[in-house]
Structure formats: C-alpha cells, structure tokens
Design a protein that fits this description.
Length: about 525
C-alpha cells in the first residue's frame, strides 16, 4: 500500500543543504519533518561523485558546519570519502536517522491552493503532504552529458564522472576524457598511470593553481580536539583570507593579474613543450571560470601517454572519437582529430542553471518552477520564488561562490529558513507566505547591477555560471558576511500572507485571499 503522512516541513535532499536544514529544524524545536532522499544513503554530491582522486578544493576546516566542527580532518583538503563520512557522522550525531526517508525520489510536488500545503509524490508510491518545503537538491546533482552524434553506437564504455563505474578497470585502456573542469583535473592524474593512453578533450583551458595539500598532523588534531577554540580560530582565519579576496573578483578584476602570473608560472614549471603550454594557457582573465587547484594535473598532461585535443568532442564514429572537426553533410570528413578509444568519460558538469528539480515543482498558478524560470532563474534572497508559497531552496539562484566555502552560504540560508518558519508560527492557523513580485524584481535588479563589474561577467569567458541568455544566475557578487546580513531574518514587507478562504465567504471556492503586510 502507498504510504501517506503529513508533516510540518519536507526537506528534499540529504547533502550538506538537506542535513543542515534538518539539524536546524531540530535545534529550532521542530521535529515534525522528513528528509526525502532519492538514493539509499545520505551525502548528496559527495555520495554521487566517487571518481578516482575526488577531493574538495576548499580547506577542510572551512568546509564543515560551524555547529559541527570536525577536529579529525586528516588532510588540509579532504577527499570524498572523508567528507561523506563527515555527513554520515552529522546524521548520527544530531539524531536525523528517524527523519530520513531514503529511496524516496520526488517525482512531483504540487501546491494545493485550498489546503495551503504541498502534496509530494515519490517514485516508490509514497505520498506526503507538507506545510512547507525546503528544496536542498543542490545545483551539482544532475549530470550533464552533451548530445554527441554517434555516441549511442559507441561499442566501448561510457559514463559521467558523477556516475563512475567502479566495476570497469581502466588498466591498459585507451580513455577519452571529455572536459577540463574541477572533476577532470582530478581524474586525469588518477587514471594516467594505469591507462594505456588518455586523450583529453579541452574546449577551454582552465586556470590551475598549485594545491597546497598536506596531511594534518596528529598534534594538530589533538590540539583541535582538546582546545576546540583553536579549530574555530583556524576556520576564522581561512574565512577571513577569502573575504579579503572578494573585492578582486567582484569590483576590481584587474587586481587578479598577479594571481594570473602565478598560474602561468605553474604551467611553465611542469609543461616544457611550448605547443602544449600554449594549448593549456587560457586567454581569459583568471577567475572568470572557477580557479582550479591541482599540483598533479600539469605533470600528468606532460606524460607521453596523454594527448590534449584543443577542442570539444564533436563526433563518435564506432570506436573513434573526433574532436575539432566531424563529418560534413555530404559525408566528407571535416579533418578533426581522430582517436581510437575503449572508454569515454564525461567530466562535463551538471544542470546548474536549468536544475531538473524545477520541472517537478508545480506552484499556485499551476505552472512548474522550470516554466516560471524559463527566462532565467531568480529568487528573493536566493530562497523563494513568486507563485510558490511556503517553498524555499537552499543554494538557490545567485548564492554560489567563486572563492570560498558554500557551507557558509548554506548556513546563512538556514537562518532565513528558520525565521520564515517562525513567521508562519506567529501568523497562526493555516497560512502561507508568498514572495511579492516587486520584492523579487528589486532584489535581482540589485544583484545583476552588482554583477556587471565582476570578473565572472567581464573576464572574457563563457562559464557554467551563465545561463542560456548569458545572465549570471549562479554566483553571489559579494562577501559571505554581506549575504549573512541579507538573510538574517525575513522582511514580511517582501511577502504576501495567504490564508484559506472561510466557508460561505465571497472567496469560498476561489483562490485563497492574499493580505498585504506593511
């Protein structure tokens, strides 16, 4: 039989955002909630991305919750297995297991105008109603694989970096690696020693800085465990350094010139071949795309069993992959680089500006969030959207960072979530809050005006930060401290209060009345 339950809050996803929301709900005294997770365990992107070499490019002591410090981080930049273990530890420590609903993939969540709640349907047949929904699926949850002619007929192995096939042995194989983002620069050094040949397809070279990673000594761990304030101080220092860097990204991109020189020196140290060095040197301002960290990437590319193709993958012909060319309409070869491979690995990122979860959210007007956002994502303070009452997202539009830890942004959004729910409690009865169009428009106008001078918009690159219209709907153009101030509390003037129409009233049987709150 299909399950059904009603809860105060339904949280979607169990990565950092979802588990953080669950912890905050419990700390606020709310225990009537569930966490719906499509997989069989918690962890989000740190569960799904288990490729060889997977690690974080944010220092460990900054990439953890302030309310759940971890004195036992083994390295300054932690690997995937340690971060996933940390999230499992959070779930246990804060008593979240009873709230978890694993293997509950949400297929649709629909707002009920009459009952003022969300009806959530899951792939396993479960139906859940919730007064409020916190969507914490994250932007790095659904892999993006390009539509390549001939790919369906490739006789070898094909998978995305976020869906790594651990049963497939790459030893002695000829491998095509597609993409040069944060995943690819970790994968290539990990597979290069065992693969017979690695062919890297690079549409645009990334800027790569040395990764100053090291083991954290037992003495350091003992100190942080014995004197927790030392761990807090370490985290504060890491945060402060990154806050000071923000103005170079957001207001004065030319200040990044020195950093660019360091990155060029990093290339020169490892790449002696002038032709290869030219391929790997970006033509855009550093910071326009995310600056990547690796001390192993360039040395791996310099090995004799690695080839760099300075183009994307354009076609697959049988077991041959083609870059920089293809086949013309008359069947004549376009002169691209052709390579025989046994496996194709896509490191081509995720659906960030077109998050698939948006297609499953149906609001008060009967349209999906994807339809509402067809002209570009926008949300009030990165959390709420017009026409979607009592629904908020964690890591929503324009909450991403280019140089610091997303956990800082998540915790700020959890503050906003907590106050949102407090406001509903104060209103009493069956009530909902709907973001005003004027408030959303004003907020996003300010964000986009500030975005105009940032390196992400002026640096001369095309990145995953930009949507199909060229708008930067991904990154926050300020410091994390600014964002925390902006999301400290809910301003009711930015919302409309929605209540159920009383039986027999003029509104009976119609859409709920909306009260303006001054």
């Amino acid at each position: 039989m299909a399950q059904h339950e009603h809860v105060r809050v339904a949280v979607i996803g169990s990565g950092f955002g979802g588990l953080g929301a669950a912890v905050r709900l419990r700390r606020e005294g709310t225990t009537d909630f569930v966490v719906l997770e499509r997989a069989g365990s918690v962890g989000g992107t740190w569960r799904d991305n288990s490729y060889p070499g997977c690690a974080c490019d944010v220092p460990s002591h900054l990439y953890s919750f302030s309310f759940a410090p971890n004195p036992e981080w083994p390295r300054t930049f932690s690997g995937q297995e340690h971060i996933r273990a940390y999230l499992e530890h959070v779930a246990d420590t804060f008593g979240l297991r009873p709230h978890l609903r694993l293997n509950h993939e949400v297929t649709v969540m629909r707002w009920d105008n009459d009952e003022l709640h969300w009806r959530i349907e899951c792939a396993n047949g479960a139906t859940i109603t919730a007064d409020a929904v916190v969507s914490a699926t994250g932007p790095l949850s659904d892999p993006k694989t390009p539509d390549i002619p001939g790919l369906a007929d490739f006789p070898g192995k094909v998978f995305h970096s976020a869906r790594w096939d651990h049963d497939y042995d790459l030893t002695g194989k000829r491998v095509a690696m597609i993409g040069t983002g944060a995943s690819a620069i970790q994968i290539v050094p990990a597979i290069q020693p065992k693969a017979a040949k690695v062919t890297l397809f690079q549409r645009t070279p990334p800027w790569v800085m040395p990764r100053m990673d090291r083991a954290i000594s037992g003495a350091e761990r003992w100190l942080h465990r014995t004197l927790p304030l030392t761990g807090t101080a370490r985290r504060g220092l890491l945060w402060g350094i990154r806050e000071l860097q923000v103005s170079a990204f957001t207001k004065h991109p030319n200040q990044l010139g020195l950093v660019e020189k360091i990155a060029k020196s990093n290339i020169a140290r490892s790449i002696k071949d002038p032709a290869l060095r030219a391929k790997l040197t970006p033509s855009y301002r550093i910071g326009c795309k995310r600056i990547l960290l690796s001390s192993a990437y360039y040395p791996a590319l310099a090995q004799p069993n690695v080839d760099v193709v300075a183009s994307g993958l354009t076609e697959v012909r049988g077991s041959t992959v083609v870059g920089g060319g293809g086949t013309s309409q008359d069947g004549v070869s376009g002169g691209g680089t052709e390579t025989e491979v046994d496996a194709i690995i896509f490191g081509t990122g995720f659906h960030v500006t077109d998050m698939p979860i948006a297609e499953r959210v149906v609001g008060a007007q009967g349209i999906t969030l994807a339809e509402h956002w067809k002209g570009g994502m926008e949300a009030l303070r990165g959390a709420t959207a017009v026409g979607f009452p009592n629904w908020m997202t964690i890591i929503g539009p324009n909450t991403g960072l280019g140089n610091s830890s997303m956990i800082l942004m998540i915790e700020s959004q959890l503050n906003y979530m907590a106050d949102y729910l407090r406001q509903l409690d104060v209103l009493g009865g069956r009530a909902a809050l709907g973001a005003r169009q004027s408030a959303v428009t004003a907020w996003n106008h300010r964000v986009q005006e500030r975005m105009k001078r940032t390196v992400w918009n002026t640096g001369g690159c095309t990145s995953w930060y930009l949507d199909a219209e060229g708008r930067n709907t991904t990154v926050w153009p300020g410091t994390t401290a600014e964002f925390r101030r902006a999301t400290r509390s809910v301003d009711l003037a930015e919302y409309e209060v929605i209540r159920v129409a009383k039986p027999g009233s003029a509104e009976d049987g119609k859409a709920p009345a909306e009260e303006a709150v001054a």
